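$ ./design --mode recover --in tokens.txt
reading tokens...
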């Protein structure tokens, strides 16, 4: 009973408020330490963390830093930004609660449900405040009948613009566009190309 009490006491301390951001969590098993310079809470088994509008779920979640600033998720990671209608999946996710930046690693998928866009990459950085998403390695974006591919991409959600570089190619139905750099207006699906340009259009 004493050991259980100590664990619960640690977790209650870890579940405090960081500014106006309400922070809650749960899991099958929990452990932690509040030693100076080594504050950590570990959640294992059906782990879940809710920070403001962001909900994270994973097999294992570690929470570290002053005011529980850093969240490290691994094992079938899923997340949902309820306010912005953005969901994602990844092998691993690291989230900075102060900067509001999420970094997805491994097989990563981000879905913008509001704009009906699905994106994939091996590394994804989502800036929650700026509403900017950066994709690297094996980038794929799907919208309606359009598919975009590249090694690097930047999605500016407010402007509905996608910038692609690193052997970018865009397929629109039977049409194909290639260039050194490609910008896609995701509101109109218009494509702007720069550098060495090539493509094919079927009437």
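writing sequence...
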């Amino acid at each position: 009973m004493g050991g259980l009490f100590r664990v619960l006491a640690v977790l209650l301390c870890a579940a405090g408020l960081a500014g106006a951001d309400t922070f809650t969590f749960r899991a099958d098993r929990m452990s932690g330490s509040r030693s100076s310079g080594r504050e950590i809470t570990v959640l294992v088994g059906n782990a879940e963390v809710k920070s403001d509008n962001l909900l994270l779920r994973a097999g294992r979640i570690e929470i570290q830093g002053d005011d529980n600033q850093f969240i490290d998720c691994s094992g079938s990671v899923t997340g949902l930004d309820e306010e912005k209608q953005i969901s994602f999946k990844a092998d691993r996710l690291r989230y900075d609660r102060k900067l509001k930046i999420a970094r997805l690693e491994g097989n990563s998928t981000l879905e913008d449900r509001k704009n009906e866009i699905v994106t994939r990459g091996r590394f994804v950085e989502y800036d929650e405040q700026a509403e900017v998403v950066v994709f690297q390695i094996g980038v794929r974006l799907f919208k309606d009948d359009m598919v975009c591919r590249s090694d690097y991409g930047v999605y500016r959600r407010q402007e509905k613009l996608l910038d692609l570089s690193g052997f970018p190619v865009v397929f629109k139905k039977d049409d194909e566009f290639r260039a050194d750099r490609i910008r896609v207006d995701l509101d109109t699906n218009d494509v702007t190309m720069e550098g060495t340009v090539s493509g094919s259009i079927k009437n």
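exit 0
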